[in-house]
Write a structure and sequence with these properties.
Blueprint lengths: L2 H5 L34 E4 L7 E3 L23 H9 L7 H11 L4 E5 L5 H15 L6 E4 L3 H14 L7 E4 L5 H9 L4 E4 L1 H10 L10 E4 L2 H6 L3 H9 L6 E6 L4 H10 L4 E5 L10 E7 L5 H11 L5 E4 L3 H13 L4 E4 L5 H13 L4 E4 L14 E4 L6 H8 L9 E7 L4 H11 L4 E2 L4 H5 L2 H20 L30
Parallel strand pairs: 3-8, 3-9, 4-6, 4-7, 5-6, 7-8, 10-15, 10-16, 11-13, 11-14, 12-13, 14-15
Antiparallel strand pairs: 1-2, 1-9
Helix pairs in contact: 3-4, 4-5, 7-9, 12-17
């Protein structure tokens, strides 16, 4: 989607709705709620009335017609928050911020659809912080996130953007002691960032904690919240929230479940869509694949990591076991690899992420627990060692690189068993990917050393499984019984 297309909204239509009177605006036309698959970007009033919509001007516009880039101040953000944005290095608003912030400042409910890595967090954080400046009160905003890591990241974004106005945040997630969390809630923070299961525990069990005076609710990565079966818990939370509130629902993809959640929780919302189709990746991302026999996967992975030596990489796998095995194998070969998966304790997961962010480890081997929302500033390469089960997860995985306008590589390893999934992913993206050029002779140079490291990793994995459940072991607890239900407190811990 060209930048010309994104920004071609008339300056004199700040609300995002077209009017017939100003000749510059597009014609008013009645249409159904724009479907996310529609190939034109639109802001649509989602209600029972036939909605008005603005359709961005087509790509036939000349470059010299382009409007000057807007600043945060032009969007209506106050000076103290503009200073915080400048201090964080936000030079200009991203398209989702340009479209959604003016509407949010007018007090409208929003549905925001944009590709991952497009600045959705600031798009809802800035309007909430600005409203908090006008009328300071405790427990002003609540942000619901699907995973613990994303909750911590959103809280850090709020604290960074609100640093000049001393905003206080509390993170309420599973896997941590409830007593310090209850104490943090007792100190009446301005913003609570939570995963739904643990928040409901506090609403039911923590004396004196209620959200009756809440003014803003945000559901981030809403499709993922519903994929993790948080639906019934969200219904219970929505029942105890005040009706008079502003609600923002943000997601990279949309589904029928998300649309039913929207009907249940939003009043007369505007849809802000910055995606040209249902499955969107940024233009600075170079995507390719290698097609190889299954037994050579490890050797080709080592070859690719060697090709991108010195650059930071995330290797995505399908299972906890494979994540741990690959991390051991890569370490045995001298790579600085660290695993991240749902079987690690919460402190170990945060430790792994911080080491990778700080650059003391350059390879993160992860299950899909790391595919959503995590903003690691400089990931150069994403390698899909195991293909994701669906196109939506693929979008989120490759969205860990090429963030905020930077370029990045995403390479998928496709074996004879993955062809069907790969063709489905290509069909969803709407284009054939390029094959990454490799010379078999060069790859097979690594074979002997990789086989030796495989033997070492097999022995290590055997020891880990034998120690399972013992104090200090990597794998926590016994294997769950088949068909056994996950407790509410564990729902925000993705097993991957």
């Amino acid at each position: 989607m060209s930048s010309t297309k994104r920004r071609k909204i008339a300056d004199n239509v700040p609300s995002g709705l077209s009017t017939e009177k100003n000749g510059a605006g597009p014609k008013k036309r009645a249409s159904r709620l724009a479907s996310p698959e529609s190939s034109r970007e639109s802001i649509t009033l989602a209600g029972s009335e036939p909605p008005e919509s603005i359709t961005m001007a087509g790509s036939e516009l000349e470059a010299d017609d382009e409007e000057p880039t807007k600043s945060f101040k032009d969007l209506g953000i106050v000076d103290s928050l503009c200073d915080a944005c400048a201090a964080l290095g936000y030079k200009a608003p991203t398209p989702i911020q340009t479209e959604s912030i003016p509407l949010a400042l007018q007090g409208r409910d929003l549905i925001g659809l944009a590709e991952t890595g497009s600045g959705k967090t600031a798009a809802f954080a800035l309007p909430i912080l600005q409203a908090l400046l006008d009328k300071p009160q405790p427990l002003f905003g609540l942000v619901l996130a699907p995973t613990r890591e994303l909750a911590y990241q959103i809280s850090q974004a709020f604290e960074a953007l609100g640093s000049l106005i001393s905003v206080r945040c509390a993170v309420i997630v599973g896997g941590m002691d409830m007593v310090p969390q209850a104490i943090a809630l007792g100190k009446k923070p301005h913003v609570v960032v939570a995963t739904p299961g643990r928040l409901l525990d506090h609403l039911e069990n923590t004396k004196g904690f209620s959200l009756r005076s809440l003014k803003y609710l945000v559901m981030d990565e809403a499709d993922r919240l519903l994929d993790l079966d948080f639906g019934p818990i969200l219904d219970k939370i929505l029942k105890v929230l005040p009706r008079e509130r502003r609600t923002y629902l943000f997601s990279a993809t949309i589904s029928s479940k998300v649309e039913s959640l929207q009907r249940a929780s939003l009043k007369d919302p505007l849809r802000v869509s910055i995606s040209s189709n249902k499955y969107q990746t940024v233009s600075t991302l170079l995507q390719s694949y290698i097609f190889i026999p299954h037994p050579h996967k490890d050797t080709y992975l080592v070859y690719l990591l060697n090709e991108f030596a010195g650059q930071s990489a995330i290797v995505f796998t399908r299972t906890v076991n494979e994540t741990q095995r690959l991390a051991i194998l890569l370490r045995a070969l001298g790579f600085g690899a660290i695993p991240l998966h749902g079987q690690l304790s919460q402190s170990a997961r945060l430790g792994a992420l911080n080491k990778f962010r700080a650059g003391s480890r350059e390879i993160l081997v992860a299950t899909d627990v790391a595919s959503r929302g995590l903003d690691i500033p400089s990931v150069d390469v994403v390698l899909n060692y195991d293909l994701p089960p669906d196109s939506k997860t693929y979008i989120h995985r490759v969205g860990r690189t090429a963030r905020a306008g930077k370029s990045g590589h995403a390479i998928s390893i496709v074996t004879q068993y993955d062809l069907e999934i790969w063709l489905r992913i290509e069909a969803a993206l709407g284009k054939k990917q390029k094959e990454y050029e490799t010379e078999k002779e060069e790859v097979m140079v690594f074979k002997a050393r990789v086989e030796e490291a495989q033997r070492h990793s097999r022995n290590e994995m055997k020891n880990l499984h034998e120690d399972r459940g013992k104090r200090g072991s990597t794998f926590k607890g016994r294997r769950p019984e088949k068909g056994g239900k996950k407790g509410r407190d564990e729902m925000d811990r993705e097993e991957g």
